[in-house]
Amino acid sequence: MSKCSTPDRGRPLAGLRLAIDCMPVLTREAMLDGVLASQRIIAGAYVDGEGGVCPMLAAHRRGGRTDFISFARSWDRFTRARGIARVVTERELAILISQLEDSLSESSGIELDRAIADHRRLRGERMGRLRGLLDGMEPRAEITARRLRPRARAKALRLAART
Q1: Whole-model pTM?
Q2: pLDDT of 141-150, one tens digit each?
Q3: Fewer CB in 10 Å around end: N or C, the chain?
């Protein structure tokens, strides 16, 4: 089990910090911006009927499009919101903001989201080279396909195995 998936049930603040540290940097930045800009931050639900949003939705609205359920669980555990939506206290909000700021200030230069972006870029380049090679190739003979009955398919497979 990875560090980011290990719940810390006995220490809710430690669990919240762990969940924050495991989020991509872009999501943490978006969450901090969203929390600072929102009028009503809530716990216990994604939204409430009065315009309140959870920190993860605030991040989504600011471009941090990560679905990170362990943050939601640790946030609700930290705020002791047992499925009942409520506005967070000033203290809870101040702690969330300070944890986000601390996490961002301590983030290393090697981040998972940057590594994923590099991997996708390299994969795209490799696929582009492969497409270029395939574009220059022409089929050597006409390709035909037909559906065979089960016995005929078995016979064709046996013949193909011999050659």
Answers
A1: 0.62
A2: 676 676 767 8
A3: C
